[in-house]
Design goal:
Blueprint (H helix, E strand, L loop, with lengths): L3 E2 L5 E3 L8 H6 L2 E7 L6 H4 L3 E5 L10 H16 L3 E4 L8 H11 L7 H12 L10 H17 L26 E7 H10 L6 E4 L3 E2 L21 E4 L6 H4 L1 H8 L13 E5 L8 E6 L3 E2 L5 E2 L2 E5 L3 E7 L9 H14 L15 H11 L1
Parallel strand pairs: 2-5, 3-4, 3-5
Antiparallel strand pairs: 1-2, 6-7, 6-15, 8-9, 9-14, 10-11, 11-14, 12-13
């Protein structure tokens, strides 16, 4: 089988069988080979080349992302050395659609599966980092994937598979003056007016809100009217949700579990306000997904009901990256502390006493 060259590069596309065409490989000065397949080719086919192997099947539940940075570096090293590279995948340094079109000019039968293309786009949107497996976006994608696999088996995910976003380092941009959305329990507000206690509970802010495009394709006469907000606001998993998402484990940690409580988590259920003086129903969750009132499916779905919360916006001036680290840490600690989030020791400000942190932990149980 002939090799198909990518225009303008010493980069070639071909099948495993093309490795048997020694004359064509020599003419193309092939020095590096990328093999993307589960079954390894015969050792004698690649022993005279530098070989990079990505052992995946052409199915949608494979994790291709983790290999992309290493594959790109391998391909680039071959090109920089003046050799030719035979690869079974996308050409680097382009957005996925442009790369696929370039490949198809030489190899019209190239047709990556849909999930591979999504992963390539995600890698592109991440900025093609050298370190993929420790990148927050990849870790969130991996958690989402594990949740989907569990839900497909009719089970809630394991606790270790869920990323509670407010317990992770902040990844949103600093120096922004855009309005920040705040979501608070509405019943807390009503109680506050009656008791004059400062018990109103923050549920989420902008970095933890998941936006989704309304599904116009599924709109109908029964669908939502134009301009009407979705009935639910979907959120990333947050610390205060843990007792709702994993009630058995939460009871065990609190020392209130029973001998028959094995910690199994429900596939779906209610979200309750973390304020111990309120505990109102503020929304619901379904690991297998929910259809929003706009007809868009959200998977997994963890949402607060708009009718049960107050949504406000306030303009803030976030310190720029050049500001003192102590100021940034103080701002973050204050906001997370106000949400009842357990703070690690290095984030506890001078005004946060051990007693206050103990109270925060009790409120989270």
């Amino acid at each position: 089988m002939a090799l198909d060259r990518i225009e303008g590069l010493n980069l070639y596309i071909g099948g495993v069988i093309s490795l048997r065409n020694k004359a064509a490989l020599q003419q193309a000065n092939i020095t590096h080979v990328v093999s993307v397949l589960r079954m390894r080719p015969d050792e004698t086919l690649t022993e005279s080349f530098q070989n990079f192997r990505i052992e995946v099947d052409d199915v949608e539940d494979e994790d291709l992302l983790q290999h992309l940075a290493s594959a790109n570096a391998f391909i680039q090293s071959g090109l920089d050395a003046g050799g030719g590279v035979l690869v079974h995948c996308q050409a680097p340094k382009l957005d996925p659609d442009s790369a696929l079109e370039l490949v198809r000019k030489s190899r019209s039968i190239a047709e990556p599966n849909e999930d591979f293309m999504k992963q390539l786009w995600l890698y592109h949107e991440m900025g093609c980092p050298d370190d993929v497996v420790n990148h927050p976006t990849y870790l969130r994608w991996l958690s989402h994937r594990q949740i989907e696999l569990s839900a497909a088996c009719g089970r809630a995910p394991e606790l270790d598979a869920v990323r509670f976003e407010d317990e992770l380092p902040s990844s949103h941009e600093t120096g922004s003056t855009e309005p920040e959305t705040e979501i608070r329990c509405r019943k807390c507000r009503k109680r506050q007016k009656l008791t004059k206690e400062k018990t109103r509970r923050m549920l989420a802010t902008t970095p933890f809100i998941i936006t989704h495009d309304k599904d116009d394709k599924k709109s109908s006469s029964r669908g939502p009217k134009e301009g009407v907000d979705c009935a639910h606001i979907f959120l990333h998993p947050l610390t205060w949700m843990r007792p709702s998402l994993f009630p058995g484990i939460a009871h065990q940690e609190a020392g209130t579990g029973t001998s028959g409580d094995d910690g199994d988590a429900p596939l779906s259920g209610r979200l309750t306000c973390p304020n111990p003086k309120c505990e109102a129903n503020v929304g619901k969750f379904a690991w297998q997904g929910l259809q929003c009132s706009c007809s868009k499916w959200v998977v997994p779905a963890i949402g607060v009901a708009r009718a049960r919360v107050d949504v406000t916006e306030r303009r803030i001036d976030v310190p720029s990256l050049s500001s003192a680290a102590a100021t940034a840490n103080s701002t973050t600690s204050s906001r997370l502390g106000a949400m009842g989030i357990r703070l690690p020791p290095h984030m506890r400000g001078a005004g946060t006493s051990p007693g206050n942190n103990d109270q925060t932990r009790r409120n989270n149980l």
